Amino acid sequence: MASKIALALHGGCGTLPVDELTAAEWAESRDHIADALRAGWDILRRGGSALDAVEATVVILENSPHFNAGHGAALNAAEQHELDSAIMDGATLGAGAVAGAGRIRNPVKAARALLERGDAIMLIGPSADAFAGSAGLEIVDNSYFTTARRIEMLRRMRAHAASGTSASEGEKHGTVGAVALDRAGHLAAATSTGGYTNKPPGRVGDSPLIGIGTYARDGACAVSCTGMGEYFMRNVAGHEIASQMRLAGRSLKEATHTMVFDTIGKQYGIGAGLCAVDGQGHIEVPFNTVGMYRGFVTADGDCHVGTHAELECRGRWDQ
Amino acid sequence: MASKIALALHGGCGTLPVDELTAAEWAESRDHIADALRAGWDILRRGGSALDAVEATVVILENSPHFNAGHGAALNAAEQHELDSAIMDGATLGAGAVAGAGRIRNPVKAARALLERGDAIMLIGPSADAFAGSAGLEIVDNSYFTTARRIEMLRRMRAHAASGTSASEGEKHGTVGAVALDRAGHLAAATSTGGYTNKPPGRVGDSPLIGIGTYARDGACAVSCTGMGEYFMRNVAGHEIASQMRLAGRSLKEATHTMVFDTIGKQYGIGAGLCAVDGQGHIEVPFNTVGMYRGFVTADGDCHVGTHAELECRGRWDQ
């Protein structure tokens, strides 16, 4: 029997305050979320793999300037972009990841190419860029990733650092990710990020780490995390959620909400969100910040998109 | 009530065939294992922390030419050393890690310095080297890590690649690691490696990945892995072992042997080993290869050292 299909994404829990963007800009960011869902959903409903769906979804988010990944990625303290991404196939536990990449237009495609090659799972720095080039992926100058907004964010973060004031979540971080369940019942997850604004050069967060920011395992769940990576790393978040389900019989909702609100919430207050799907097509998108760019299409085909508390219905999509 | 203390280490499951070294060289490698245990044990028996003990133990192994970490690390395909290390405190879940370092004499000290700073957990490449220098750690030329044996291993691996023959485990990989339980009942783990001989530049394995090659959590266990890193990464090995104990009530022996012999053994045949300790001072050092450099001091003070099947008793050490 063919499985239900389901798809969810996040565009980072570092959502800007509502008054930072114009209504037209907010509408465009929601449209880009819907576009990304459409790319993944069309693959799923035609019987394509969850792996192809999460990659296609993340590519759209990487190409949008609204999210902290690919074009529009955060600038580090050296005014450069260092990009991290991972992808994982829940059916085979195959995975690929890049960290500290500087010239790969779509880092998630490099992660996917590593998964397909099946040799090294993780490559870092210029070696990741060189691999992507040899794999035929598009190579760009580091400045391709820069937007006026990210230059402004770096200026603000430096001002906060100089004055000792706190930055908002929206100024600090962001990430994109997607999770999917396909017709064959397989799960997959993918994540891509520029890290947080003004991060130290060379810093790697949870996004490209298998079992932490990115994890998928058939029979349990697929998870992509967003927020302060170090919080997720100490808790091995993705694999902990899957383990709670596999070994302790918890539901996707219990396991994901425990991680975001209880475990990380109690340790650090705020700074965490994620999207997750299980083998029955249940979707969870918890976050403990002011907002999280997010969207999903349920197993019934209902599409929802949101940036702050409220969700906007985008109709019932054909399955 | 003061806890029992216990300490275990591995020097990699890529043990050479017995006839590759002279009897004197094998004796020296066992002595270096005993020296490393002594460094950690002296800290533990004086009431020092598990974190200090695993760091001190790994430093001795990094400084010995017999093991694939620090001096004596494997050469990659570009005839360079790229070093990875991580350390984790089971009491706080604090962690530090470096990957792709090229100039830090003792990478585990850089991982510890990151843990202590409490900001970024993981730094990669030249940024890891720069951080270590700024933290006052000893910086060396990349050639410091090279030994005649590793040049020979690279020659052999290239010959295998050219002729399509298989390399032995001993020619391929190695890693060092330590786990400890201290008087206060806290657990810690540390790992350091040069990766496998002839690895692609930029490849990162499981060693520096929190929850995979290195993991510690009070109430569960501390684990350091050795072998083909990609096997451990797909299985999120360290955290999976701890989760089996925490969430499914398995013993340290059941959880570690399942990972090495059942999970990885069935997926890949061979290529895995680890050392682990739990909160009661139980020690496990399973491996599915021909041998594994290893040593441990039990909660009763009994010290054992070995490289292949047999263990050599080194007496009962004062607690």
Describe this structure in words.
In chain A, strands 4-3-2-6-5-1-12-13-14 form a 9-stranded mixed beta sheet. Chain A has a 4-stranded antiparallel beta sheet with strand order 8-9-10-11, with helices on one face. Chain A has 9 helices and 14 strands. Chain A is globular and about 60 Å long. The model of chain A has no long low-confidence stretch (mean pLDDT 95). In chain A, β5 (176-181) and β6 (187-193) form a beta hairpin. Chain A has 319 residues and is of the alpha+beta class. Chain A has a single domain (6-313), classed as Glutamine Phosphoribosylpyrophosphate, subunit 1, domain 1. Chain A has helices at 23-45, 50-63, 107-117, 125-134, 148-163, 169-172, 229-235, 237-248, 252-268; strands at 6-10, 83-89, 95-101, 122-124, 176-181, 187-193, 203-204, 214-217, 221-227, 272-278, 283-284, 294-297, 302-306, 311-316. The longest helix of chain A has 23 residues, at 23-45.
Secondary-structure element pattern of chain A, one letter each: EHHEEHEHHHEEEEEHHHEEEEE
Largest sheet of chain A, in brief, is: 9 strands, mixed
- Which chain pair has the greatest contact? A-B, 41 and 41 residues
CATH topology of chain A: Glutamine Phosphoribosylpyrophosphate, subunit 1, domain 1
Under CATH, the homologous superfamily of chain A reads: (Glycosyl)asparaginase
Secondary-structure class of chain A:
alpha+beta
Instruction: Write down the overall mean pLDDT of chain A.
Output: 95
Counting DSSP H or I runs of 4 or more residues, the number of helices of chain A is 9
Assembly state:
homodimer
Q: In angstroms, what is the radius of gyration of chain A?
A: 18 Å
How much of the residues of chain A is beta strand, in percent? Answer: 15-25%
